[in-house]
Design goal:
This is Pgant8 protein. About 15% of the residues lie in helices and about 30% in strands. It is α+β, with helices and mostly antiparallel strands. It folds into 3 domains: about 220 residues, Spore Coat Polysaccharide Biosynthesis Protein SpsA, Chain A (Alpha-Beta Complex), CATH 3.90.550; about 140 residues, Trefoil (Acidic Fibroblast Growth Factor, subunit A) (Trefoil), CATH 2.80.10; about 140 residues, Trefoil (Acidic Fibroblast Growth Factor, subunit A) (Trefoil).
């Protein structure tokens, strides 16, 4: 991101203040005087001039605004749109890219992280800089009487590489998230970092800064912004599953576009939900009026349950003034929307034949342990070749039939010399993508989460695609837990799904809507199951408790 640095208010030996301008800005006359005065009065404040729309004709229009944001557990930015009358927290993360620093404070902070890679339209360097400011003794100070025009039509069009983006996110997490880092890095997009394929680089300069300035831990930031973080689903009071009694199944985040009902399992990915979206109670901002997944496929705060014009499923959360389609509550055993009635089990999903495999929610033998037997594969090398067999823990092998018309893989008794049970990696350097050894132009494909499919291979070596992978539906890998699933660094749309050899195949159902009286008559009944406080929220409470104990105070709730 190109920036112009302007030095202002020169002292005896050097400038007192330096301003950072994004491209395509037009400072209004007099913008600097109030900024200089604010820095003189509070040297560790970072002044944020008010931004106004700048048209193609270079004329100023529209009201003053500031781009206040927060970040998710994946170190992605989320803009906060709450009505100012309800905001009780200090200005969080700036993404306006127009900053005024005292020169001494800038030098003490060490400026931007110089080891961040590339240009990112997600402005990840601003998250890192904001954490330096907040945790190391500074604050942001928005000023409405210091105005700069900002041309949105030219902003945010820079290209960014996914690899650079994930590197920068992982670097922020490792450097600043402290005891929260290990939980944050569990997201599938960081699989190459947790498996040792990639690394965040040297963070010794950041560690030295934190020691020199005695920077606070992330807990102080999380505690200060607890309410907006809770509304975004990032610091929930509880995480829970939702079981529907008549079907005996649980609400399941299936893939990027669809939710359904699946076998209840506390270890299953995509079955944990939290309350999200604002709820105004007695004139005060509160949580919450809707629900969405905990640690969503695409990011922590991304999606909420939505009526979707009668086809319930995921839609982008509208945290401020959510529409009726995103208002949901569990009341008297019913999951109720004021607009769409009640959520009910819909039609069954087609079940594969007995010998075939299917996509199902990834499940574990114990939380954080190995995959369950029906999903746990092991790659056994074929001696003297680059081929291997995929043995399921139940005793069968994954097979791609020699029949040219067969498009679905199956399970069969293991036969070491059987060519249809031999596989190769489509991208050997990363052990990524599965190719039947007997069908060199065919790959195992996710098929948008519908069913495992043997389909024409796409390239895994395109220099313009993330990690060379052209079609991420074919970016399958074998996890350390034994799951065959999508490789998160290229795409997380289907990382809740794993290849499953259950016999008989598992039953899944779609979601539907009914009038609530009819739903009640049909015996539909929802209940929360497995409700618990997530470790992220527990750690905030523990850190707050330790801080208050040092002050001789008692913390409650």
């Amino acid at each position: 991101m190109g920036r112009l640095v302007v030095l202002m208010g020169r002292g005896q030996h050097h400038s007192l203040v330096q301003a950072f301008f994004d491209c395509y800005v037009k400072p209004l006359p007099g913008w600097a005087s109030s900024a200089l005065e604010a820095i003189r009065q509070s040297p560790r404040s970072v002044v944020l001039p008010a931004l106004r729309d700048l048209g193609e004709d270079w004329e100023i229009k529209g009201p003053n605004s500031h781009f206040d944001n927060i970040f998710t557990w994946e170190a992605e930015t989320v803009q906060l749109y709450f009505d100012p009358e309800y905001v009780s927290w200090p200005f969080p993360v700036d993404q306006g890219n127009v900053l005024v620093f005292g020169s001494q404070w800038w030098q003490e902070l060490g400026g931007y992280d110089r080891l961040m890679r590339g240009s990112s339209t997600l402005l990840l360097e601003n998250i890192e800089l904001s954490l330096r400011v907040h945790l190391c003794g500074g604050k942001f100070l928005p000023l409405n009487d210091s105005v700069v025009g900002f041309c949105h039509s030219h902003h945010g069009t820079l290209h960014h590489e996914r690899g650079d983006m994930l590197y920068n996110q992982a670097r922020i997490i490792e450097a600043w998230f402290g005891e929260w880092a290990s939980e944050a890095m569990k997201h599938p997009r960081f699989a190459d970092y947790t498996s040792g394929v990639s690394a965040v680089g040297d963070i010794s300069e950041t560690r030295a800064l934190q020691g020199r300035l005695q920077c606070a831990g992330l807990g102080s930031f999380l505690d200060a912004y607890r309410l907006p973080l809770e509304i975004l689903g990032l610091l929930p009071r509880e995480v829970f599953g939702l079981r529907e009694e008549s079907a005996g199944l649980c609400l399941q985040e299936w893939n990027k576009d669809e939710w359904g009902l699946s076998k209840c399992d506390e270890t299953a990915t995509g079955q944990w939900f939290v309350h999200k979206n604002e709820d105004i109670q007695d004139g005060h901002l509160a949580c919450c009026s809707g629900l969405g997944p905990w640690r969503n496929l695409h990011g922590s705060s991304s999606y909420c349950l939505d009526g979707r014009l009668g086809k319930p499923g995921p839609y982008g959360c509208i945290h401020r003034k959510p529409p009726n389609s995103q208002l949901w509550e569990v009341r008297d055993g019913l999951l109720i929307s004021p607009e769409w009635g009640c959520l009910v089990p819909g039609s069954p999903v087609d079940v594969p034949r007995e010998a075939q495999v299917q996509w199902s929610a990834c499940r574990f033998s114990a939380p954080g342990g190995q995959a369950i037997e029906e999903q746990r594969f092991h790659a056994e090398a074929v001696a003297g070749t680059d081929k291997f067999r995929l043995l399921l823990a139940t005793g069968q092998c994954l097979s791609a039939s020699a029949d040219s018309d067969a498009r679905v893989p199956s399970l069969a008794p293991c036969q070491p010399e059987e060519e249809s049970q031999h596989w190769r990696w489509a991208k050997p350097s990363l052990k990524l993508g599965l190719k039947p050894a007997a069908k060199t132009d065919i790959c195992l494909d996710i098929d948008n989460g519908d069913s495992p499919l043997l389909y024409v291979c796409y390239s895994m070596e395109d220099v313009h695609a993330p990690y060379g992978v052209v079609n991420t539906n074919q970016a399958l890998w074998l996890t350390p837990a034994g799951h065959l699933t999508q490789w998160g660094p290229v795409d997380t749309s289907f990382t809740n799904l794993c290849l499953d050899g259950s016999a008989p195949p598992l039953q899944h159902r779609r979601l539907g809507l009914l009038d609530c009286a009819e739903a009640h008559a049909q015996g539909v009944r929802w209940e929360k199951v497995g409700a618990h406080t997530p470790p992220q929220t527990e750690m905030v409470a523990r850190q707050k408790g330790r801080r208050w104990q040092r002050l001789g105070l008692r913390v409650e709730g």
